[in-house]
Every structure is written in C-alpha cells, then in structure tokens.
C-alpha cells in the first residue's frame, strides 16, 4: 500500500500533517539511511534541464547550425564515431559545466550532508553529474581523493565514499586512450567550448619518453568529460557494485528516493534491492510508538507519483519538491528531538577546535571519539593561540555558527537568520580551511570512473525528471530551512560565545 502525502495539503489536513510528522520523526530516529537522488534535487539550484530542446541546446545550435541532433544522440557513446557530434558534445558539456560552476548546491544537498553529519547516512547514490554533493562536503566516488593514491588505476576507498556518482562527474576529464583522469581545468574548458579536445598529458609524457629512446611512436589520446554515456560501461562499475552489495548487507533502516522519476533500468534495480533490504528491517507487527516503528520505510519524494510498478515497493509518496520536504523534516526533527541538535552543538564545537584555534592536535581525542567520520587534520601546524578568539570575529560570523545560532534562536528567533546566502567566493574561502572534501582545490580533483556494470549501463540522463522548474520554497524564508548547521562544519566557531558545557569539552583535550 502506497500512502500519498501531499505537502500542499499539510496546512489544511490534519491527518496528512500527522503522517508527515511521523515520517520526519522516522528520519530522526533511523541510523542507516540510504538516499537515492536524481535531477529534481538540483532544480532549485537552477541547473538547466539539459534534456529539453531549449537552453543549452539552443546555444549549441548557434555554434553548429547545420547539425541536427536529438538529446539522446548527444549522450550516446556512439557520438565519438563522428567528429562533428564529438565537437558538439564537447561544446555542450562545457556549457553545461559553466552553468553548474555558476550555481550553488541547494537545501536537499545540505540535508544529505546533515544526515551524514548526524551519523545517519549509510550512503547517497546519485544520477546527477553536477557534483553538488561534494560541494557540501560529501566525498564522491568520482573524486580523486576517493582513491588510495592519486592515480587512475588505484583502489577506491569505498568506506570514505559518501556519495556514489552513478553517472560520473562533469568536473573531471578522462583520456580516451589510456583512461588517465584529471580535474577539468579552465584551460580544458576553453578548448572544449570550441569543440576541440585537449591532449592527454599522460600519453604525451609517454610519447616523449619513447621519442627520446627512438622507440616506435604511440598515439596520444585526447581528454573527454568523465561522465557516463548511454551504452558505455561505467569506469567504476565493479567498485560501485561492491559498494552496493556491502550496503545491502549493512541492514539499511530507511530508503529515501528524491527527485527522480525512476525510469532508468539500472536505477530501478538498485532501488528495488535497497527497498527489499529496508523492508526486512520493518517490525513484523508494527505498534505505533513501538521501539522499531520507525524502521523499514521507503519514501519517495517527487512532484509526480511513481508508476504502478512501484506499489508494494514504495511506502510513501511525498508529493512536492524535495527542498520543501527536507525543510519540513529538519524543522520537525528539531522540534521533536532537540537533544539531537544539542549533541551536534558539542560535536561541531569540538570539530571546530582545529578551525577557530588552529590547534587540531590539542583536540584530537575529543574529535576522534565524538566524530568518527571526520578526520582531524594532523598536518596542520599547531600554534599557541588556542582559546583566543579569532580577531576577525564579526556579528554575522557569530550568527553563522550553528551552536551560537541555536542559542540565539532560543532567545530571539528573528535574529536567527539574518545572514544572506554566502556568495560562491565566500563559501569557498570558508570551506577551504575546514572540510577537506569541499575545499575547492581538492574538489576539482574529483575523478572519473571506468566501467559500468550491467545494471548501471546506459543510465545517463535516462529519464526526464518532472520535478523541474518552479520552486515553491523560498530558501531563506524559513528559519529552520536555513539552519546553518546544515553547512556548519566549514564555519569558524567563536570560542568566546560557546555555551559553558561546550567550552569545557573543548578544554578537555
Ligand atoms: Zn592518455
């Protein structure tokens, strides 16, 4: 039985409201949540619907007026057989990348990060190639950092990967000959925009070495965007398969599917397998308020309903935008389990020890016990300014720290969120010091993949998501939606303002 809960009805209908509230509480209580996402979660970031015939297609058309193409042709591996379609592809993806670079992750990306920060995220799987998850601090499978050594052939550090990129990453390039992978640089962009392709440095190096010893010359490969096309194996197919298998055996207690119409074969298979694993965690005889009542739910959040094929698999269809739903969940989670957010205060404060005081080693013990997933950066130089608040402390910084913001919120909710969204440059600045995954330089080292296995084959951009266009939610209207802790770890934490309890935790180390 699938229950439909329309977010639009919540205000007027008490039973919908109650059911949504129960669902939020279930999110708050579950500990091993699997999240599966599609294009719908990036809509509010203004990522153009690149499958439609306007927008980017029109731009490409300007440059290649004589080329007749259909969306599918642009993403089929066979495009490389023809030099014109290859050129169009390069231009198109370069333009898409420019749009993505200019955009910002949205509330749903931050929500997934919050689940991870609260130790509730078993794994995120996405069809999206925009890399927004990495920008909010979730290590992606395509990332260069996700590899045990920087090189393409090295092993994927599956334990550290938080976001599995089913269709690759638009911010990486890969050699068509030797599969060497690189970050997508501005130089690459300039070349791709013209429809050309840069030469592979790895191949070039080898060719030169051969030339110096007068060996037979080899072909120098060209670089291409490291996204997965139709009928193309995923470069990391085997590794992704292993991650999925491992996650299935770890008894996930909730599955949240957001912003995808679930029409791609490989994704359907993945969702069905996780749904089965999740349902096996549901209590045999559910008792309202019972110990395990929250476990075993499969939630689908999308503006349009799933097809009938999903009845018996999806338990709840939350009708609406993903941003709206995650805003509601966070709000209700805070209202019903405030303690979860107080724990986070301590956690954030200790994590921030290395941030605001530049003295990570002093906090090693606390940081490692309180936050297993986060690494204390041992390489940072410790210095002696601990307990001295940063000089540049300003009002909006105070407001921007979750711990203080929460404290402030208790006294005056109006000042809770006075801060405007960070500009990209500011965000990058603050990020770079604190979260290794989201630092811009590292983020650009996000890497590609090699070899999609059967189920994952031909997934790319599969089904058009219907959750596009207009957003109902003003991002900065709802205080809870804007909870800064959703982007918390990257902000400096003013020690002076910490609640006493937190301060003493900091001192312990
Ligand atoms: Zn190469």
TrEMBL record:
Biased composition (Polar residues): 411-420
Positions with a binding annotation for Zn(2+): 175, 178, 200, 214
Localization per Swiss-Prot or TrEMBL: Mitochondrion
Record GO cellular component, one term: mitochondrion
UniProt KW keywords: Metal-binding, Mitochondrion, NAD, Transferase, Zinc
InterPro entries membership: DHS-like_NAD/FAD-binding_dom, NAD-dep_sirtuin_deacylases, Sirtuin, Sirtuin_cat_small_dom_sf, Ssirtuin_cat_dom
Stretches with biased composition (Basic residues): 371-382
Enzyme active site: 167
Family statement drawn from the similarity comment of this UniProt entry: Belongs to the sirtuin family. Class I subfamily.
Protein name as it appears in the record: HST3 protein
Organism listed in the record: Mycena chlorophos (Agaric fungus)
């Amino acid at each position: 039985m699938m229950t439909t809960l329309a977010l639009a009805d919540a205000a007027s209908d008490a039973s919908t409201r109650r059911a949504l509230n129960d669902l939020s509480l279930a999110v708050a209580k579950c500990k091993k949540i699997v999240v599966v996402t599609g294009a719908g979660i990036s809509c509010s970031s203004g990522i153009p619907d690149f499958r439609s015939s306007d927008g980017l297609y029109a731009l490409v058309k300007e440059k290649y007026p004589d080329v007749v193409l259909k969306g599918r042709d642009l993403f089929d591996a066979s495009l490389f057989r023809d030099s014109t379609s290859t050129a169009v592809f390069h231009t198109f993806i370069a333009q898409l990348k420019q749009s993505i670079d200019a955009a910002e992750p949205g509330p749903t990306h931050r929500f997934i990060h919050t689940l991870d920060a609260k130790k509730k995220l078993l794994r995120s799987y996405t069809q999206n190639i925009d890399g927004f998850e990495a920008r909010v601090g979730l290590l992606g499978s395509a990332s260069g950092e996700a590899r045990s050594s920087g090189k393409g052939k090295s092993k994927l550090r599956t334990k550290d990967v938080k976001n599995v990129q089913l269709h690759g990453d638009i911010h990486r390039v890969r050699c068509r000959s030797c599969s060497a992978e690189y970050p997508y640089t501005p130089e690459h962009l300039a070349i791709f925009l013209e429809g050309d392709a840069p030469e592979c440095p790895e191949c070039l190096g080898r060719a030169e070495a051969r030339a110096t010893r007068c060996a037979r010359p080899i072909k120098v490969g060209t670089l291409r965007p490291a996204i997965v096309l139709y009928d193309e194996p995923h470069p990391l197919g085997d590794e992704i398969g292993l991650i999925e298998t491992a996650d299935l055996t770890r008894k996930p207690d909730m599955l949240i599917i957001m912003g995808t119409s679930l029409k791609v074969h490989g994704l359907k298979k993945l969702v069905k397998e996780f749904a089965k694993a999740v349902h096996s965690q549901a209590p045999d005889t559910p008792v309202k308020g019972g110990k395990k009542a929250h476990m075993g739910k499969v939630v689908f959040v999308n503006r349009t309903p799933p097809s009938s094929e999903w009845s018996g698999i999806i338990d709840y269809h939350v009708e609406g935008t993903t941003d709206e739903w995650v805003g509601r969940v966070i709000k209700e989670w805070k209202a019903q389990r405030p303690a979860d957010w107080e724990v986070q205060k301590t956690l954030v404060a200790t994590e921030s020890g290395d941030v605001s005081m530049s003295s990570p080693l002093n906090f090693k013990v606390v940081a490692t016990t309180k936050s297993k997933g986060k690494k204390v950066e041992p390489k940072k130089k410790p210095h002696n300014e601990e307990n001295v608040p940063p000089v540049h402390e300003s009002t909006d910084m105070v407001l921007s720290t979750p711990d203080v913001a929460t404290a402030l919120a208790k006294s005056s909710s109006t000042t809770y969120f006075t801060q405007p969204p960070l500009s990209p440059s500011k965000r990058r600045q603050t990020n770079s010091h604190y979260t290794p995954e989201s630092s811009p330089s590292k983020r650009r080292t996000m890497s590609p993949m090699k070899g999609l296995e059967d189920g994952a084959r031909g997934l790319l951009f599969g089904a058009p998501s219907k959750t596009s266009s207009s957003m109902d939610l003003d991002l900065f209207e709802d205080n809870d939606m804007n909870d800064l802790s959703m982007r918390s770890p990257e902000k400096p934490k003013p020690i002076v303002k910490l609640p006493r309890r937190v301060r003493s935790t900091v001192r312990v180390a």
